[in-house]
Amino acid sequence: MFDWRWDFVAEIMPRLLWATGNTLMAAGIGYVIALVLGLFLALGQRGSNRVLTTILREGIEFIRSTPLILQIFFVFYVGPQFGLVLSPWVAGMIAIGLHYSCYLSEVYRGGIESVPRGQWEAATALNMTRWQTYKQVIIPQSLPFALAGMGNYLVGIFKDTPMLSVIGVYELVHTANAIGSENYRFLEPYTLVGFIFLAISLPTAALVRLFEGRVRSKMGMN
Amino acid sequence: MQNLVGYPLELTGEDTPMVRFTNVRKSYGPLVVLDDLNLDVAEGEMVSIIGPSGSGKTTVLRMLMTLETINGGCIYVDGKPLTHMPKNDKLVLANTRYLRERRADIGMCFQHFNLFPHMTALQNCMEGPVQVLGLSKTEARERSEELLELVGMIDKKDQHPSRLSGGQQQRVAIARALAMRPKVMLFDEVTSALDPEVIGEVTNVIRALVSQHKLTMLMVTHQMGFARDISDRVCFFYGGKIEEQGPPADLFGNPQKERTQKFLSAVSEAI
Fold this sequence. Notes:
The complex is a heterodimer of chains A (222) and B (271).
Chain A (H helix, E strand, L loop, with lengths): L5 H40 L4 H15 L3 H11 L9 H26 L3 H9 L4 H31 L11 H12 L3 H32 L4
Chain B lengths: L18 E10 L2 E11 L4 E5 L6 H8 L7 E6 L2 E2 L2 E4 L2 E4 L2 H7 L3 E4 L11 H11 L5 H14 L15 H13 L5 E5 L7 H17 L3 E5 L3 H7 L2 E6 L2 E6 L1 H6 L4 H13 L1
Parallel strand pairs in B: 3-10, 3-11, 8-9, 9-10
Antiparallel strand pairs in B: 1-2, 1-4, 4-5, 6-7, 11-12
Helix pairs in contact in B: 3-4, 3-5, 4-5, 5-6
């Protein structure tokens, strides 16, 4: 019953490693989109335009309250009805980037709000603009508060990339499925995929913690 | 509703004050903090503001720094309106761009210093000159080091605020504000958060500023002895109004109003 075959492992390993590259790329691109877009969402929510802030807040709530997989399907399959034909990769990156940008915007918002009011006042007394204050004073100080959450979502987005398999992105789980159905053997590919995820997630989380400590001490906060 | 009628668009003449509060009113909901305040501060004058807490004295400084909005009246700095801007021969509430232009004349030090914790003392001083005044890093460094020298903090210029004592942080904060070359300096209870033994190092810096520089200064303080020593004029605030004002020798030595007498005797008993 439990016949683990090492020769099969050796045979499928190159394909899984290639798919690991795709998974890392998907997580990486998606995360960069989420990091940048999330910052704009967070700052936009704090702006003085009431209409804009309401739209952003409700939009973020909407995306956070619906499943990622539905959003992926929506971008990929409903898009063409509106003339928006996207490749699985592009559709997947938009969906996952947008989804995580909403979570990251909340992380940024928490970080930004944890910076004391006196810092804003000091920046005003130096006659800095709103944008200069964010860039030079507020965002750098909110970083230590936000880094833990940012790291969590880095690991989170990485673990959510298998959802892209539903629209045919050849990431790890999609590839393991394909290998399994071609060979009628699922034990090795699924087990290996699990270990690959573990082998990447654990060190990433540890690195984030290390980075957090370094940022804190560099900012003279310890 | 904030358009002002009958206020001059500009103050001119020999005796134009550096700062003028004209009928300034500030309230938070039903709570009136400043009630029809009129106050002139001449160029180079050092004015201390004293009074019980809740009398509106800190609000005076915060409004001058544009940290609070105005509910009535107008503030002028160096002859031009600060809280309002001229538009079609009327004064309307100032917009962000106008405020930025006008508040370049004003610098402020806070009770809790509010240094940027992620920057060294030197970087704190260079930040404004580089970002706001557009100075080169070299120029900004030169100016900042000169000022850190003045406040006696040049040895600690590469330290972050978390490594500095309260008195040291406040001295860096004074250098940081001066680096912007303001015409008016505001000191908001700058010694209130300090341990007694380091108050002297901050008051000595302010003393040196008063004697060596022709800065216009407004200072809110609880240190009566210090206010008496260095002020040209002392204003006693009570209930959002100036109850009594005058040269320190008169106000402290021979207060006319009963509230002033009561306040001063209560304060001297506490010491």
